[in-house]
Amino acid sequence: xxxxxQMDVQPWHSLTSEDIAGRxxxxxxxxxxxxxxxxxxxxxxxxxxxETPPPSxxxxxxAQFSSLIIWVLIGAAVLSGLLQEWIDAGAIVxxxxxxxxxxxxxxxxxxxxxxxxxxxSVVTARVVRDGVVHVLxxxxxxxxxxxxxxxxxxxPADARLLSATHLRAQEATLTGESTPVEKSSALRPVPDxxxxxxxxxxxxxxxxxxxxxxxxxxxTGLRTELGRIASLLQRTEREPTPLQxxxxxxxxxxxxxxxxxxxxxxxxxVLRGEPLVDMxxxxxxxxxxxxxxxxxxxxxxxxxxGVTRMVERHALIRRLPxxxxxxxxxxxxTDKTGTLTKNEMTVTRLYVDGRTFEVTGExxxxxxxxxxxxxxxxxxxxxxxxRKDGEALQLRxxxxxxxxxxxxxxxxxxLLEVLTSAVLCSGAILQEREGVWSVxxxxxxxxxxxxxxxxQIHKSELEAGNPxxxxxxxxxxxxxxxxxxxxxxxxxxxxxxxxxxxLGRCEFVMAADGTVRALTEADRQRIVSANAGFAxxxxxxxxxxxxxxxxxxxxxxxxxxxxxLIFLGLMAMxxxxxxxxxxxxxxxxxxxxxxxxxxxxxxxxxxxxARELGLYDGDGSALTxxxxxxxxxxxxxxxxxxxxxxxxVSAEHKLRIVHAWKARGAIVAMTGDGVNDAPAIKTxxxxxxxxxxxxxxxxxxxxxxxxxxxxxxxxxxxxxxxTIYANILKSVHFLLSCNLSEILVMLVATVAGFxxxxxxxxxxxxxxxxxxxxxxxxxxxxAVPDVMRRRxxxxxxxxxxxxxxxxxxxxxxxxxxxxxCAFVLSVYVEGAPLEQARTLTFVVxxxxxxxxxxxxxxxxxxxxxxxxxxxxxxxxxxxxxxxLQVLLVQVTWTDDIFNVVSLDGRHWLLxxxxxxxxxxxxxxxxxxxxxx
Length: 932
Description:
The protein is built from 36 helices and 27 strands. The protein is an alpha+beta fold. The strands form four sheets. Strands 10, 11, 12, 15, 16, 17, 18, 19, 20 and 21 form a ten-stranded mixed sheet that branches.
């Protein structure tokens, strides 16, 4: 047997059974010997994934202190403590601790992907060793083990089939293909087949939904296809979100700018002869003022409040920064199966003798109707014919129809025959529990049951009067399935299968009125044309037929039973779109967000869904996984913007697509529900998992879980993210323009040779009352109506673009101007004492900044247009801050702490008048902007 390295790269599907057994050193009949299996278990290790321990409490806690601004704040707290400014030091420490606690609480359960993958492993497997069947823990399997599979089993390892009897496997979580795969042990000679086309292989974590099989294990643990996904997850590192990167850059700029200005003020003050200690205290206060110490807490609290609102909109956020990433998303790469579609096969069209019927309703819930859409132009309404309970519907004496009672379309009894025969040829079960409908067995057969149930035709009732006698299972050679049932008129064979094959064995056809006639060439052409039309719409089509076998005994061999058939009709089905998906895609387009479909399904099926969604109109291109393999990463990066649909792709392909978009500077959201989506979901800027159908792996890798599996909920989350991001910018705008005004006041006074207009303790108080509640209230401002009609933010743009910086600069100058005016009027015009002048300047600065908070709600809309009371949190925050400022000035016991004096009514009116000037000028500027 070769080494692990050699075994890992073998194209097992392209090797013969004998060659595989030889290379694995195993007996295809007796399996491995006990000692050989034990030796291999020692060499290869158990059939499981190594569980990566989650981050420790200490690691998560330390991660909350990685921001540069946080370290600057800690430094400011230490300096304040050394200067015995205990109140300020305590406030800064409280901000830092609150920020850390909120971030820690959200991220505590984040890194669990490998543990979730491990939970997908089965507990036991049936293994042949030394010629004897053993039931062993799946962890004990080794390469070369001979395993037995049957319906209901979870595949315990990757294995090559030696034999398969009607074996079908559901592989949607691994490949993304919505329908079960027919398995065969036949050789697949092409070495580089896509995973979904390796029909002679079974894979760890998938489910057997029908038939039986024997297979040799070729890979276990991390060497399996599921294991490779685990390895991809293990290698994938989370990157900082756009806002984290932008705030980090902003933090660096603010720090350098603050140091430069503070050094200038300190140096000029010392040169003018100001006391060294006073200037040092002033410089430290200005440093604290220049850096918005409330910003980290405001961002974190805003995101946390956004998370709460998102839960109400069916979006569960697992990492706080994911909220703002949603708002900046430019591309959504979405899985098809279970995300855009319901992952519930549904019959949508029926064909009976030249007449086509539309089946309404989606998914497994049997709610809907069947109506004619062409042919005679009449609608099948489902009225009950007048007949006694228990009486069978007789079509022609020579071709009796053994049917149980049910609603019969008065003008199309042939339609009833198709539905009833399809039910009697189905092995699935339709069930309802707690209001949720589901299918046990093959989803395709379940779709037939649902369609019949929409006519009140139920399998349990039919089976009671028509017990099963024999079954000839589906196989890939015959392409059909037959169930023989004992009816009141003797044994009858009910068949369904590939229309072209089934039609070739039919000699009769049932008309829409229930009569049977000989099948003519014109009939054949109509059936072939109808089948082609359904297939062109990417529908999966089954033909339905039956045959009376006459008196017993009868021969059950397929060659004798499956001939001389009566062709009943065609049933076309698909995995339907979610009702809200098309509208959500349109909303994304209006919001400037590109939607890209990535699926494991075939190209034609994917393109049909894309057209129905409005994603594909022939302009964009579509690529398959095989075509992706022929492209280098650089070539894919160049082409990716022109591709709307990716079909027949694997987990690695999805990962490459996400990387390609990110290489082009896009902010990428990746949605999905299957295991094969998990690596791409973790790599994307924002990973989105489906909450109902998503696997544990996918949920653990995701940043956000959509709790109702509704694609529209993702769009709602994007809207919420955009609102939150806009509100964070409002808070940043407010904080920085106010902080700039404080610096300018001190700088102008120092350059002009004025006494210091504000003392260090007053500067710190201004930051406390303006950087706190008002800034946080801005962060919960209601959304503007056109938030989803704006283009996404440029991922490479800074937090503050040039136009906003200019506006902030002008507003900062205006705020500083009125404060300096108050100081000059008081000292040089009125000749007031310095303490009174400083108090007036202090009050004007606080009031002007509080009024300025209302102006920051919008750069273009007037506060009176937005509604003064639409943000009641801001009204309350400004009211509380003004009340605190009035108490501080008018209550005498604070005089010695803040060096203030009480002001009379005239000075308060002057302060309010000056403070309103920047606000009113701002409103005038908005009016001029709107007129332009």
